[in-house]
Specification:
It is a single chain. By secondary structure, the protein is of the alpha/beta class. The chain folds into 3 domains: about 110 residues, ATPase, nucleotide binding domain (Nucleotidyltransferase, domain 5); about 100 residues, Nucleotidyltransferase, domain 5 (2-Layer Sandwich); about 70 residues, no CATH class. Helices cover about 45% and strands about 20% of the residues. The strands form 2 sheets. It has a 6-stranded mixed beta sheet, with helices on both faces. The protein starts with a strand and ends with a helix. The mean pLDDT is about 90.
Length: about 325
């Protein structure tokens, strides 16, 4: 993810939090007060393509400025910072096509949630929503990023990873229904059939490998998996634990490389709807204790847009 920030000639600034699920735009004045907001669909170019991502960004900026009621707003914009999901290089190309938005800067989407987690101090954040990543600010102030490889190469803890793992488990159950002595399906397998509308293994498998919208269907299954885990569905709980464990392993590497022997617990933010769910947060707390992380976990329930706002205040 990345974000877009725009500064309106010495008085206004715009920030855009562009993720895979939604794109949030804010316009603030010189004091940091929010003057206008706009919400648009997700704009990750890895999911929807660069052209559509650019159109969503451009339309959102225009809508935000219109909602601000500021007369001739583009004449007052001094800086634009992009912090959006997807390739930094792609967003740089998109940003170069923007006009009337002042100075343009592109940076990873991890910075706003890292700001929420550590307030500019050394520490790290684990984020898992549509995508996932680990971001950290080392004691020397340098910022590091791990994970976030996307659905094709692995995004442990993300909505897609959770949905993929759950569906794989459910499909194996459906396969077994044709064998002698098959047991009744688990709530997870029944939930898959309801989610896709297909009753057997063959029909579901055909759908996932042939339908253009299969990836979105997989990600959209994650909330149901979390619900089932909260309702003590064993397979769903195992899926959540496995997915979170992979993300925790990545975080463990970052912690031990950047904070090998801290004098005090290191601030560690936990961000995103997946990790803030009851089953995922339980799994993460357990793993942090087991791995003896020298951190103080802080679960972030606010919007990344607040991190954007704080960073805008620090922008000259």
């Amino acid at each position: 993810m990345f974000f877009v920030y725009l500064v309106v000639t010495n008085s206004f600034k715009i920030g855009v939090d562009g993720g895979g699920t939604k794109t949030e735009f804010i316009l603030v004045d010189a004091t940091g007060a929010v003057v206008a907001r706009h919400l648009a669909p997700g704009c990750n170019p890895s999911q929807i393509g660069p052209e559509k991502a650019g159109l969503i960004l451009q339309a959102g900026l225009e809508a935000l400025l219109a909602e601000s009621k500021i007369e001739n707003p583009k004449s007052k914009i001094g800086t634009t910072h992009l912090y959006m999901a997807g390739s930094t290089g792609t967003w740089r190309e998109i940003a170069d096509r923007l006009t009337g938005m002042g100075r343009l800067t592109v940076a990873p989407d991890s910075l706003p949630v890292l700001e929420l987690a550590t307030a500019g101090k050394p520490g790290l954040v684990l984020h898992a929503g549509t995508g996932s990543f680990v971001a950290a600010r080392a004691p020397d102030g340098s910022v590091h990023y791990a994970g976030g490889l996307g659905w094709k190469l692995g995004d442990a803890g993300s909505g897609f990873d959770l949905g993929r793992r759950a569906m794989a488990h459910a499909l194996l159950e459906l396969q077994g229904q044709s064998m002698p002595g098959a047991k009744s399906l688990s709530p997870l397998a029944e939930a898959l059939r309801t989610h896709t509308g297909f009753a057997d293994y063959a029909a579901n498998s055909r759908f996932f490998y042939n339908d253009a919208g299969a990836n979105a269907t997989i990600s959209a299954f994650a909330p149901r998996v979390l619900e089932l885990a909260e309702q003590d569905c064993g397979p769903a709980q195992q899926v959540v634990a496995d997915s979170v464990t992979e993300l925790a392993r990545l975080a463990d590497q970052v912690i031990h490389r950047l904070f090998p022997a801290p004098a005090a617990p290191v601030p560690c933010g936990v961000s995103g709807r997946i990790l803030n769910s009851v089953p995922a947060s339980f799994a993460l707390r357990s793993l942090a204790a087991k791995l003896r992380w020298p951190v103080a976990l802080h679960f972030i329930i606010g919007s990344p847009a607040e991190g954007v706002r704080r960073l805008l205040l620090a922008t000259p």
